[in-house]
Design brief:
heterodimer; A: mainly alpha; 7 helices; 82% helix; 0% strand; B: alpha/beta; 4-stranded antiparallel β-sheet; 36% helix
Chain lengths: 230, 277
Amino acid sequence: MTEHTVRSFSQDLEELSGDLARMGGLAEDMLSDAIQAIAARDLVLAETVVSRDPQIDALQVEVEKKILRLLALRQPLARDLRQVISALKIATELERVGDLAKSIAKRVKLVDKIGAISALKGVARMGRLVTAQLKRVLDAYTALETDAASKVWARDEEVDEHYQSLFREVVTYMIEDPRTISACAHLLFVAKNLERIGDHCTNIAEEIHFLVTGEQLPTERPKVDALNSN
Amino acid sequence: MSRMEPIMPQLRVATPPQGATRTQAPAAKVSARAISVFYGDKQALFDVSLDMPEKSVTALIGPSGCGKSTFLRSINRMNDTIPNCRVTGEVLIDGQDVNARDVDPVLLRAQVGMVFQKPNPFPKSVFDNVAYGVRLHGLAGSRANLQQIVESSLQKAGLWDEVKDRLNAPGMSLSGGQQQRLVIARAIAVNPDIILMDEPCSALDPIATAKVEELIDELKANYCIVIVTHSMAQAARVSQQTAFFHLGKLVETGPTETIFTNPRESRTQDYITGRFG
């Protein structure tokens, strides 16, 4: 797209994109480190994830301030307006991803108290899938590719399936050995957090679609419901 | 274009109402059909067709010299007054071609009122400004009737409370925003169907602008309003339909909401987001 006649407007928008890229990078690193910390039961790494969360929160506040200023001073229209509104929403999604990654990291020491169980591997596998989803959707946002965004959106079904099978598996462990119930419950929260991050990825994919086309993706997405399938 | 053309508006009326929002398929009050305007050898407007619905505001936007004012002036034949100006195509009001031989431009301009960029009250009293057209067209049966028309026009223009105690003061003594509303009252007084506005707020401060915009919003309940504006925000605020002109051509037209959130044409996109170099 050509430059604005008022160049500082273009600069404002570029700055916003830069902030979101930074937020995305932070969220991605926090998530992959949190998963690694769970899988390897690395308390030190988990601690660094928790300590990074304030950065992403601060960036979100910064983005909101900039958008407020942009709306007041520039009155963006058409695609510019959609870009600004979707940035506002994506920033919120990424902040939530950061929170969930932090929550996963905080549980490392709780899961750590029990011996190795194979469910940890399942969580790590699901974690890698969700990390890949987050990476893909952030790449789609940078490149403004709706096709890539739609793929992420459709692929959330896979995340949901993972969550469902992990849920069953962990419940089985709890039945087999009640001493693991406490740790397994935390593991279920980790899985649930990953499933939520997957949802945030689809929300971001929807925003990308809206930004580029001006239209909404259908509200209904193929969904696997862990509660109904048990 | 042949004289068969009035079939078009009839077809529109025959379209069954969709029951959805009223602005979806309102009847076209004014239909421009393939309007081209030439100033001497220079063509200023190219083959513009646009339906302007009744009880609705249509905004014409576009950079200076894009033909939007020329188009506006073709609706009430103001271009007739310019030497060397030639108009082709048809402008149908209720299916009737305004350029037909038997149409009297003076009567036409009573039916199609016009408000300009700069308020242009006559050098007469507030009362006489509004009464002028009513007297000219012999619309008032009696003195009392004339007074009543003047009062109701000033009320519709949202000016009555401000001027009722100084109806004999010169129109020029009012503030700019009041003068613009006086001119609107003058246009309304002769009972038009259509009101054309050529940048009616560009000489007004924000408060006077807001009052005129509020007035436009009220007037649209009864009139077909066509407004030329350079303010994107104003077009977005007051209109239901927006038409974007560029280099004498109509580039895109659609519901105002769509034009300002998701226009189809990249030229529209570039213009409204401030990217025209």
